[in-house]
Amino acid sequence: MAGNEIAIEVKDVTKSFKVYLDKGSQLKERLLSFKRNRYEERRVLRGISFKVNKGEAIGLIGRNGCGKSTTLKLLTRIMYPDSGTIKLNGRVSSLIELGAGFHPDMSGRENIYTNASIFGLTKKEIDARLNDIIEFSELERYIDNPVRTYSSGMYMRLAFSVAINVDADILLIDEILAVGDANFQAKCFAKLKEIKKQGTTIVIVSHALSQIEQICDRSIWIYDGLIRSEGAPKDVDLEYLDFMSLEMQKTMNTGNSMGECETERHGNGNARIEKVSSFSSEGEEQTVFRTGESIVFKIDYSVREKVEDAVFGLGVFNSNGVSCYGTNTRIDRFGIYDISKDGTTEIVLENVPLLPDVYTLDFTIECGDGIPVDYCRHIYKIEILSSVGDVGVARIKHSFLLDDNVDNKAKATERIK
Amino acid sequence: MSTIKELYAYRQMIISLVKKDLRGRYKGSVLGFMWTFINPLFQLIVYTIVFEHILDATVDKYYLYLFVALIPWIFFSSAITTGAASVLAQKELVKKIYFPRMVIPISYVTSCFVNMLLSFIVVFAVIIVTGTGFNFLALLTLPVIMIVEYIFALGMSLLTSAVTVYFRDLEHILSIVAMAWMYMTPIVYTVPPQYEKYFRLNPMTHIIECYRTVLYNKQVPDLSTLLLAAGLGVFFLIFGAMVFNKLQRHFAEEL
């Protein structure tokens, strides 16, 4: 029975906000604008239903403003739905607002009592957890100092330790684990996994898809106030990323006309790059790609005067201005060619291993020994996305070889290939 | 019913908020907690000089007559004025975390109540120093009177704190109301007989008179007066709680 018990049941929930254009809450304003209190009703949730089993962890994903944070707020009961019902079985704790009610003049110990009491713990329950909380926060030496003497990292550590030690049946988390240094974050993450093992139901709202994939059994993608898709995090996250790349393209395309990039160009102008566009290997025009995808650039150029011994080239720079790759037809020993008529050059980049970032591109036409004809810096932008959390500039193909002493659970590397 | 159960589960939160408020109130001042006693004492001195010596009040032991009514009144008026702003003052908490919202007005009123209890130390000291003495049987009813006043103050403050969220002017209107209310209650004077029936409509009249009967007249208060006050108190508490429960659903959006 324990496996199928339902911890959270959300049924046909809708929620709208009144966005007052000019809100007056004073008597005079209320009276004067009695009928003219203008507001727009914004429907944030348009009928959402889902169930979460006991001990299950789910991730809510979606872009900003899609309603995922509102859903979480409804679950915590900070707000109430306009229609529909929400049923929660068990004590709810949230890692939404850490350190609620902290008083800077009081000691860490006193603040543990205040903060934990806000989660609905009695004195006895707090007494029983006090040592765990202090130990987890690693603040033993400072626990009797006023909280105002703490660094912000220490403050968050204390707050997180209280919240995570509440022993809730349902834990709601909004954008977690930006707490403290890398060590502490790893510790928090381990603690979350431990809590999940103990049978706590967890709901996470996050942009960090890799975190969701590590902890959650299921992802729910909310789009425009409705559930668009739900299922195993790996599948839903990919679907979501695909969709986001399409969306982003639409917005990026408008901003990607040549004039709007801060293009610097120099050269003798005998030939001129008129237009750059990028396509997927299937020939679809797009500017957002995933790590490992192939990218095809098409460069339309016009010729005013014949360019002898022409050289086409490109350079790729990440958002920090680091040159990630650069080459041209001469480096590639392409052979000597002239251009005398308007035309189009295609540059195919295969399985681009670059990691997520916005990349700026240079495209160049030179002639002879590097005499610039049309040298365009920052003429084009693309964005790379990925659902994997690896870091650096480019993905290096890799594998981990573990010896036989390791339990065979560790197949994680297969996913990345 | 479920509200009461939940509030009971959150009792530690009420306790810590009250503690925080009492401790934080005089933090940093030289005399610190002594202000709890100095404040009423000086009010007593001022009122006594004005009414007994300048206005020539005819009441016997006027300072005591005034004092045993003034201290409960200060509790009531501070409970409704600071209580009204209480939810607004804690808006960061309300917007970001769940807890039964009634915890806030309850802890504000309770902290005012604790302050009154401490002030009663001064009242008792004055009674002893001046040799007025006590009627111990009557004194036994004092806690009941205090609880009745607490219930009434809590009911009012639930009402005002919830409404203030939607209508911020109420906070300022209330400070005027509290001032007027004070003079509509027999605190600094005795009610002239021809107006008595109007004064009877004011629940605080009954409560203040009970205090005065016990501590000034040294008599057991009239049971019917006490029952009437208790009835009114419970009525306002239920009414206030109902309004609060209805209005609190949209607190997070309004704040």
CATH architectural group of the largest domain in chain A: 3-Layer(aba) Sandwich
| Strand composition percent of chain B | under 5%
Helix share bin of chain A:
25-40%
Instruction: Write the H/E string of chain B, N to C.
Output: HHHHHHHHHHHHHH
Describe the structure using short key phrases:
heterodimer; A: Coagulation Factor XIII, Chain A, domain 1; six-stranded mixed sheet; elongated; disordered C terminus; B: 255 residues; mainly alpha; 0% strand
List the helices and strands and how they pair.
The complex is a heterodimer of chains A (417) and B (255).
Chain A: E1 6-20, H1 27-32, E2 39-53, E3 57-61, H2 68-76, E4 83-88, E5 92-95, H3 108-118, H4 123-137, H5 152-164, E6 170-174, H6 182-197, E7 201-205, H7 209-215, E8 218-223, E9 226-231, H8 233-255, E10 264-266, E11 271-280, E12 288-290, E13 295-303, E14 310-317, E15 323-328, E16 343-349, E17 357-367, E18 371-385, H9 412-416
Parallel strand pairs in A: 3-7, 3-8, 5-6, 6-7, 12-18
Antiparallel strand pairs in A: 1-2, 1-4, 8-9, 10-18, 11-13, 13-16, 14-15, 14-17, 17-18
Helix pairs in contact in A: 3-4, 3-5, 4-5
Chain B: H1 2-9, H2 11-25, H3 35-54, H4 62-84, H5 86-89, H6 91-96, H7 103-129, H8 136-139, H9 142-166, H10 170-183, H11 196-199, H12 203-215, H13 223-247, H14 251-254
Helix pairs in contact in B: 2-7, 3-4, 3-7, 4-7, 4-9, 4-10, 4-12, 7-9, 9-12, 9-13, 12-13
Structure notes:
Chain A has 417 residues and is an alpha/beta fold. Chain A has nine helices and 18 strands. Chain A folds into two domains: 6-243, 3-Layer(aba) Sandwich (Rossmann fold), CATH 3.40.50; 266-385, Coagulation Factor XIII, Chain A, domain 1. In chain A, strand 17 and strand 18 form a beta hairpin. Chain A starts with 5 loop residues before the first strand and ends with a helix. Mean pLDDT of chain A is 82; it is low at 412-417. Chain B is an all-alpha fold. In chain B, 75% of the residues lie in helices and 0% in strands. Chain B has helices spanning 2-9, 11-25, 35-54, 62-84, 86-89, 91-96, 103-129, 136-139, 142-166, 170-183, 196-199, 203-215, 223-247, 251-254. The two termini of chain B are 27 Å apart. The model of chain B has no long low-confidence stretch (mean pLDDT 87). At the A-B interface, helix 3 of A face helix 2 and helix 6 of B.
